[in-house]
Amino acid sequence: MKIEVVLITGRTIKQGIGLGRGKNSDLYREETGTIEVHSSVLERLGVKEGDLVQVKTSFGEAIFSCRRGEVPEKVAFIPYGLAANRLIGAGTGGSGMPGFKGIPVVVGRYQDD
């Protein structure tokens, strides 16, 4: 099963603490490697917190650990980081900054081939 949601990215406190320790710190890598979704999304995918999911956009894909978040049912949140950058486009529309919010994504259970 795969579920379509809208991706928003942003900062978290844990990400900021991890960044202070360095981008190679366990805390930073764990936080930026996590996607938060509504509990109903976890249920429909048949996954529990900590399981891996594959997230795809028209720009790329990445694997994330999932957790229940306080987000609307049709929204997913990923902290800024290298993994999130794989999912966003390079276009800036002349602003110099790519779009980090409102990106359609497909989330599915990760299956190691």
Q: How would you characterize the overall build of this protein?
A:
Helix content is 24%, strand content 35%. The chain has helices at 13-21, 26-32, 39-45, 82-85, and strands spanning 2-10, 34-37, 52-56, 61-68, 75-79, 101-109. It has a six-stranded mixed barrel with strand order 1-5-2-4-3-6. α1 packs antiparallel against α2. The model has no long low-confidence stretch (mean pLDDT 88).
Task: Describe the SSE topology.
Elements: E1 2-10, H1 13-21, H2 26-32, E2 34-37, H3 39-45, E3 52-56, E4 61-68, E5 75-79, H4 82-85, E6 101-109
Parallel strand pairs: 1-5, 2-4
Antiparallel strand pairs: 1-6, 2-5, 3-4, 3-6
Beta-strand percentage range: 35-45%
- CATH classification, class level: Mainly Beta
Q: Helix-strand pattern, N to C?
A: EHHEHEEEHE
What is the third-level CATH name, the topology?
Answer: Barwin-like endoglucanases
Oligomer description:
single chain
Count of individual domains: 1
- Main β-sheet: number of strands, strand sense, barrel status? 6 strands, mixed, barrel
Derived structural class: alpha/beta
Low-confidence stretches: none
Percent of residues in helices comes to 10-25%
What is Rg?
Answer: 14 Å
Which architecture name does CATH use?
Answer: Beta Barrel
Number of strands: 6
Strands of the widest sheet, in order across it, are 1-5-2-4-3-6
| Average predicted local confidence, pLDDT | 88
Number of helices: 4
- The shape, in one word, is globular
Cα separation of the termini: 16 Å
